[in-house]
Amino acid sequence: MLDTPRLRLPLLALALLTAGLSACSSTPASKSLLDTISPYRFDRVQGNVVTREQVAALKTGMPRAVVKDILGTPLLTSVFHADRWDYVFTFRRQGSPSQERRVTLFFKGDALDHFEADDLPTEAEFVATLKSMPTEGKLPPMEASAESLKKFPPAAKPEPVAPTASRASADYPPLEPLSK
């Protein structure tokens, strides 16, 4: 039933197209082309940044409000695990390895019982990872010499504005009710 002459041509075209497309993905030239051309991917920062200094400030027995002041609002809280707060941080940048860190706090009632944390960076180490990608070549100096400034016309001086009477009382209603 499938061997009708009307279906042979579309099936043959589909088979040739499939074979042709599968052959394109296995050639070394196409892989090198795909490696050099890639779409721009923006930096993704998600979660709470928790540094080594912040975790060092935590002490067992601290109330939840103090912990929240130090670390901020937890990213994950669960109705089923009310005595557990999770702080998760991910940072993905094109051309550099992604960063992922977790800090989990456990409470007994309102007091901090204990916590578990990944190897966290110091504030200085974290800021160093945020610096943009290195630029190629030397950047030109960002200052103008006296000769280059002479090329531009002098700035026009603004004309003095005559003081006007205050119209605030005429244009706007009073902020407070007038008392007699």
From TrEMBL:
Query: Mostly located where?
Result: membrane
Q: Which UniProt keywords apply?
A: Cell outer membrane, Lipoprotein, Membrane, Palmitate, Signal
Q: Which GO terms describe its biological process?
A: Gram-negative-bacterium-type cell outer membrane assembly; protein insertion into membrane
Q: Which InterPro entries match?
A: BamE (IPR026592), BamE-like (IPR037873), BamE_dom (IPR007450)
- Region annotation (Disordered) maps to 132-180
Question: In the record, what terms sit under GO molecular function?
Answer: protein-macromolecule adaptor activity
Q: Which residues form the Outer membrane protein assembly factor BamE domain?
A: 47-115
What's the protein's topology in the membrane? Lipid-anchor
The organism's superkingdom is given as Bacteria
Q: Name one GO cellular component term.
A: Bam protein complex
- Span of the signal peptide: 1-25
Localization of this protein: Cell outer membrane
List the PANTHER family hit by this protein, alphabetically. OUTER MEMBRANE PROTEIN ASSEMBLY FACTOR BAME (PTHR37482)
Quaternary structure (record): Part of the Bam complex.
State the similarity comment.
Belongs to the BamE family.
Function (record text): Part of the outer membrane protein assembly complex, which is involved in assembly and insertion of beta-barrel proteins into the outer membrane.
Mind telling me what this protein is named?
Answer: Outer membrane protein assembly factor BamE
